[in-house]
Amino acid sequence: MADDDKEARIVQARMKLRERFLHKTKPADKPMGSGKPNRHGMPKLPPGQTITQGWPVLDLGRQPHVKISEWELIVDGAVEEPRRFSWKEFTEELPQVKDVSDFHCVTTWSKMDVAWEGVQLSTVLALARPKPEATHVMTYAYDGYTTNLMLEEALKDDVLLVHTAEGKPLPAEHGGPVRIITPQLYAWKGAKWIHRIELLTHDRLGYWELRGYSNSAEPWRDDRYS
After folding, report:
1. Residues whose CB falls within 8 Å of the CB of residue 97, separated by 6 or more in sequence, listed in order
2. Is the per-residue pLDDT at 28 higher than 60?
3. pTM
4. Which domains does the chain have, with CATH numbers?
């Protein structure tokens, strides 16, 4: 009950923030923001964002503590070969990558140039062999959180399943053992404490999308809310 009350307060606060920004959202003919272009040709800092040196903790009021020995990643749905990855398989048998990217939170802060290590989301999706009719993915976290992605977004090279940040194991409060990062979208599109990835043949809204957040979540369009 206490967790439910805390989640309700969090949702209420986020909905108030949504109302504050909703009238500012407008389509853009060209990317908005400031600073030199990043590697994707977008201004370094999206509109409405402030750079932070810290890393604020945002969640639904509950933080699951998943033991490495019990963690697994499931990939299923519209796939030819459903897969399950143990921690050993994920960290020792899949190709590991390092990347540096920015992290943009819808609540108006950005953490720049974060060094990540993990596995490209496209790798685990490819191993499961999505069916031709697959168009989207739904990601499920150990805390019950969900969020959706278009398949073309999920397959971008810098969308990672990360287990390491700034050279250290990803802290539990930031989604460890493993979370998804989506550098070209707002960070809520990258589920913390990732547990399952379901391939879909049609779009389906996730937790915040059902509560009025943008389905596309493009920072350089100030695309926060629907």
Report:
1. 117, 118, 119, 120, 160
2. no
3. 0.88
4. 2-56+65-221 (3.90.420.10)
